[in-house]
Amino acid sequence: MIEFRGVTKQYPDGTVAVGGVDLVVPPRTTTVLVGTSGSGKTTLLRMINRMVDPTDGAVLIDGTDVATVDPVRLRRSIGYVMQNSGLLPHRTVLDNVMTVPLLKGTRRQTARARAMELLETVGLDASLAQKYPAQLSGGQQQRVGVARGLAADPNILLMDEPFGAVDPLVRQELQQELRRLQRELGKTVVFVTHDIDEAFLLGDQVVLLRTGGRVVQSGEPAEFLASPADDFVSGFVGADRGRRRLRLEEVGGRRVVVDEDGRPAGVLEP
Ligand SMILES: Nc1ncnc2c1ncn2[C@@H]1O[C@H](COP(=O)(O)OP(=O)(O)OP(=O)(O)O)[C@@H](O)[C@H]1O
After folding, report:
1. pLDDT < 70: residue spans in the chain
2. How many domains does the chain have?
């Protein structure tokens, strides 16, 4: 379990990136931090592995204040996946995935076998292992990034807009893969996005932030539509837009769910 207790981050120039956040991230579930640009999502995420230290409050992992843990050790025990995959360009895919396990002292043969296994887990063909990142598509690079994040078998996986830079179709594919992976692996995932649809799709818990790094609402995705905390939330989740306003229509004896324009969204189970 990850816990934020009264966490604030004020940068030396006076910017309050995160303002007094209290939040619990339950284990083995996906928590999505969502919000507009500059709402403190990345800062909040990076306080988990001490890439950023809070100026006030504390972040605890399983009851231990991360401030008391050596940052290098901490970072190697937590998976981290970022937007542009962050792969080392002059190293092969295999070497990229093996980096952290080798740094942690895993034997080369073991690390290699595990890396090959992980490439398969994230849906990559073994033949890509000896290629260099630039020889891969954006989507493939992101998959390698996910494999690398999982390589040291961390309990926690931090993902900062990991699918932000790929085209919409590949993005959908990667989102579905992450859902599958999460069902199989049961990691504690903290995922940053500015896309509310992605947040609803992936999050067991969604945390909506606004400028100044304040939590406006948190909870299960459906709660945001059922009872948005205020107008900002309504606007952000699009509760006021046609796409979210669904209604039932009877078609050929079945109950079909349609949107405001009458376009079908699905069929209601009997
Ligand atoms: N090193 C820094 N020094 C000063 N201000 C910073 C620094 N890093 C971030 N900030 C500011 O803190 C605020 C929050 O930044 P952060 O990157 O956490 O937001 P974000 O929600 O992740 O945004 P985005 O979606 O654009 O990545 C912003 O106003 C940003 O300009």
Report:
1. 239-242
2. 2
Structure tokens that stand for 158 in this block: 């931090």
- DSSP assignment of 71-100: HHHHHHTEEEEETTTT--TTS-HHHHHHHH
Domain hosting 189: range is: 2-240
Nearest CA to ligand 1 atom 16: 40
Q: How far is the CA of 137 from the centre of ligand 1 (A)?
A: 28
Tell whether ligand 1 has an atom less than 6 A from the beta carbon of residue 42: yes
Q: Are residues 7 and 109 in the same domain?
A: yes
On whether both 144 and 128 belong to a single domain, the answer is yes
Dist. CA 87–CA 63, nearest whole Å: 32
pLDDT of residue 170: 87
CATH of the domain at 133: 3.40.50.300
Whether residue 40 sits in one domain with residue 161: yes
pTM of the model: 0.92
User: For 181-222, how does the pLDDT look when each residue is reduced to its tens digit (9 = 90+)?
Assistant: 899 889 999 999 999 999 999 999 999 999 999 999 999 999
Ligand 1 pocket test target in 4, 9, 10, 11 with most atoms within 8 Å of CB? 11
Structure tokens at 155: 């309990």
Ligand 1 and 143: CB distance under 6 A: no
Query: Within this chain, do residues 236 and 264 fall inside the same structural domain, yes or no?
Result: no
